[in-house]
Each structure stands twice: as C-alpha cells, then as structure tokens.
C-alpha cells in the first residue's frame, strides 16, 4: 500500500472514484499583442445577480352618460343626470436580469508550460505534478499534485520562453487539508529553478497568507507583472506542510 497520505480516510476504497470538472470556458483572442494566440478565459469567480422589478400601470377609463329630461309644461321642469365611471387596472411585470462578472480576465498560457515539477511527490502515481496542469479539477482524494512534508514545499512550472505573469488561479484540493496547510504561500517568477528546502530567490509575484477553504479557487494577482521562465508556488513558513495543487491556470503573455 503506497497510498500513505495521512489524511486519506480509513476506507479509501470507497473514495477512489474520479470526478473531474473543468471550470473555465475559452474563447479566442487577438494574437497581435502577444505574438501567439492566447486563450481568453473568464474568471471562475462569476456571480449572477437577478433583479426583479414590478411595474404597476393603472389605466382609468371614465364614461359619462348624461340624460336630460325637460318638461314641456310651464309649471315643472326636471333634469336627471346619470354618470357611470368604469375603472380598469392593468398590472404588468417587468423582469430585469443583470449579470455581473467579477475577478480577473485571463490570457491563459498553459500551452506554454513545458514541465511541471514539485519539491517531491508523496510516492503515489495519483499525486504527481502533472495532475496540477492537466486541465481537470479533481473532487476526489486522488489526481492532484501532493508533495511530501518538505521544508518549504513547492510546485513549479517551466515555460518554453520568458513569460510575463499577471495573475494566476490556483484550485485547492477538495475534501481535506487545504484549509490548514496552504498557508504563507508565495508565488515567485524568474529564471532560477526552485531548490530543495530553499525559499526561491526569484522575484515575488504575490503572497497569500491563507488558509483557503477546501476546493476554493484562489485568484492571485501579482503585485506587478513579473517575468521569467519559472513560476514557483512555495510554502514559506517552517511548518513542513506538503504543497498541494489541484489545478493551476497561469495568466500572462510571452516576453517582458
Ligand atoms: Ca488537475
């Protein structure tokens, strides 16, 4: 039994079915600016707000009927007036739907990733680094990147060329552990690959204190556009927690 991650429940045979979900949709974007054809994807953080407005319209129709009787005798004259008023009320309902999109737009550059590596893998083929860039989100106990309890555990992707990174989406592991392990995480971008047990010396793109919720998608925005051949997601504290990445989406463009 090489499946030794301590947080897997006792009866693992009931939780090994795979279920994957892709959360991002793609549309084409211009290739003029970036020298290649980037993929436009919309943030998975899309909220829909529905507003219902009720308008009441009142139409009033007044019909007046006048009857006049005039006596022909000289002593008495009588005039009778009858007024009939008809009121018609019409109610109309107008529904207005407003869709509000939040989060960052992303020129996704997964196709520029040539290799994914980790500070280690926990020894099971179900947790190798490639699962973090396969385009799928695992909702099970398997099929995401999971390192050992390394000091300053990290996950790294290498690009085919120098890329400038604006932001990234990191999908957390479902079911367990992200809510206490993914803390004090820095994202570094630069030309130096990650080293065992060492905090990266590349430029820090952003820092996330955490922790997130299990299954949460983090929208991490660089403090400033940051360029390099490597993007490294690394735990910077000394708690020796494993790095786990369910899926990574990197947003940027080629060059500096
Ligand atoms: Ca994945």
Record the SSE blueprint.
Blueprint: E1 20-21, E2 26-28, E3 39-41, E4 46-63, E5 84-101, E6 106-108, E7 113-118, E8 137-138, E9 145-146, E10 154-171, H1 178-181, E11 185-190, E12 203-208, E13 217-235, E14 244-245, E15 247-254
Radius of gyration: 33 Å
Find the count of extended strands (DSSP E, 2+ residues).
15
- What structural class do the secondary elements suggest? mainly beta
**So how many helices?**
1
Biggest beta sheet attributes: 6 strands, antiparallel
Q: Calculate the mean pLDDT score and round it.
A: 77
- Which ligands, by name, code or SMILES, are bound? calcium ion
Distance between the termini: 47 Å
What is the molecular shape?
Answer: elongated
The low-confidence runs, each spanning 5 or more residues with pLDDT under 50, are: 1-39, 41-50
Our estimate of the beta-strand percent is over 45%
Secondary-structure element order, as H and E?
EEEEEEEEEEHEEEEE
Determine the oligomeric state from the structure: single chain
Helix content: under 10%
Describe the protein.
Helix content is 2%, strand content 45%. By secondary structure, it is an all-beta fold. The strands form five sheets. Strands 7, 10, 11, 12, 13 and 15 form a six-stranded antiparallel β-sheet that branches. A three-stranded antiparallel β-sheet has the order 2-3-6, with no helix packed on it. It has a two-stranded antiparallel sheet with strand order 1-8. The longest helix has 4 residues, at 178-181. It is elongated, with a radius of gyration of 33 Å. The relative contact order is 0.21. The model is unreliable at 1-39 and 41-50 (pLDDT under 50). Residues 131-132, 134, 136-138, 144, 246-247 line the site of calcium ion.
């Amino acid at each position: 039994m090489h499946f030794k991650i301590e947080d897997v429940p006792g009866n693992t045979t009931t939780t090994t079915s795979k279920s994957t979900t892709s959360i991002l949709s793609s549309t084409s974007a211009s290739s003029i600016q970036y020298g290649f054809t980037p993929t436009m994807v919309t943030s998975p953080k899309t909220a829909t707000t529905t507003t219902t407005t009720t308008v009441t319209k009142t139409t009033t129709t007044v019909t007046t009927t006048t009857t006049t009787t005039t006596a022909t005798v000289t002593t008495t004259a009588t005039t009778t007036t009858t007024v009939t008023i008809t009121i018609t009320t019409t109610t109309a309902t107008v529904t207005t739907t407003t869709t509000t999109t939040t989060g960052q737009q992303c020129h996704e550059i997964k196709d520029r990733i040539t290799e994914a590596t980790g500070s280690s893998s926990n020894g099971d083929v179900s947790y190798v680094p490639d699962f973090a860039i396969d385009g799928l989100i695992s909702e099970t106990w398997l099929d995401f990147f999971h390192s050992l309890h390394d000091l300053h555990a990290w996950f790294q992707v290498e690009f085919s060329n120098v890329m400038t990174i604006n932001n990234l989406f990191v999908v957390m592991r479902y079911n367990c552990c992200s809510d206490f392990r993914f803390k004090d995480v820095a994202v570094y971008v630069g030309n130096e690959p990650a080293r065992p047990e060492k905090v990266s010396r590349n430029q820090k793109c952003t820092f996330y204190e955490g922790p997130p919720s299990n299954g949460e998608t983090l929208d991490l925005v660089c403090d400033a556009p940051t360029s390099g051949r490597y993007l490294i997601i690394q735990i910077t504290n000394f708690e020796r927690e494993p790095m786990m990445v369910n899926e990574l989406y990197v947003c940027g463009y080629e060059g500096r």
